[in-house]
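Help! Submission page says 'invalid entity' but I think these are all valid:
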Amino acid sequence: MNILGIGIVFARGSGINCYENALREGWQHPAEVNVSQAKDRRSSVYQVDLDRVKDKNLWKRLRRADKFSKMAVLAAASAVTNSAVLDIDKKRLGVIVASAFGPQVTTFDFLDGLLDYGEANVSPTIFSNSVHNAATSYVAEVLGVHGPCLTITQFQFSFQTALLMARVWLDEGRCDYCLVGAVDQYGEVLGYIQNHKLSLAKDGRIKPFNFKPTYQVPGEGSVFFLVSRNKTANVFCEIEHICFGKNGEDNNVTADLNIIDADGTLADESAYLSAISPEIPTAAYAPLFGSLMIGSAFNCTAGALMLKNQVYYKNPVTDNPQGINLLQDQGSSGIERISCIRYNCNAEAAVIHLKCV
Amino acid sequence: MSDNEAQELVEIRKKLKTMLVENLSLEDVNPDDIKADEPLFGEGLGLDSLDAVEIVVMLQRNFGLEVKDMNKGREIFYSIDTLAKYVYDHTKASPES
């Protein structure tokens, strides 16, 4: 399965070129937002500014959509444009949207309306956006997709599961192309949980290699891949394997680089150490987009860019108390394979193996 | 109509325009650009049936007014003028609400 196009929306903007610039420029301090329930009322967040990334043509068709759906549609549309594949039969194009939390901000808005005004006076628009398949429906409607559509809401491995499903659809011939992506949104409830239950990065820096803990800076955004069995001149890379398991590794695959997630939800994320090899350099790009349960999608995007451009992007934050073999410098060489590794709270791993084409 | 009443209607119109833009997420529409006598639905502002339901919810939440008869709703929701008059008449009729 090949990645033919990538669309992305994150705190620094939208589009694959914007993300590439972020990878080159490195870490930047996140924005500070007011959090009504926070201990100190201010919190660092990698938040998407929709006014900055909005697409006027798309926005006309998204008047009633919430931020969650808008981010998904923007990234999905951008992935199609980026692929430069012009002759996609929309009946043979599928959509799979992965999310850890779904449209939780809108769901809480709906519940607030229910409690404040009663069931007869809740907003029908807010209700329709609180439905978990809403973002997928918007993507399908705006892009004119008539193939299979699916939403996968799963706490830990939603993006990896979505990729597996895309592979199944392509293998069994349900579609020729699939838009597979991930989206999550920051909101007041998540802000409360993060402020009260997790280790927030007081200096605004996620430290992925600190492990105990990696510290949190909440983020939000969306990534979409246009994947297919076909290859084009613009192809980024191949998704060779998606493996789940206790250690997650496919023993037959040796990578040139391991990219690890850092969502900061555990006090101890040292399970990652078992997947890190002293011979293979390690990178983590969460400090660019935030602590996200769907961070693998953003890390895979970094991996795909590196394989396509044959350039390594240096680690944005290099605090390294464990002395692991970190990718230090931005440079280029023959990069053949990159593994994107994510662990859950049961020390189970999911690894996405990317291969140069 | 007294000056007082006219002034109250002006205020209600202004409030309704702002509410419409905010609650219906009317991109690129400035509340001041909505003409008081232009149709809200169809060729005017271009609202649709789902917007009508949102306006029903908006009137209930902000003015405590219920519009249950959708046939009457057609007249009430015709324009900002008709909407403002309905709000004015019915909030005057039951000041406790």
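Support: the input was valid. A stray whitespace character was the problem, and the output above is from the cleaned input. The first helix of chain A runs from residue 16 to 25.
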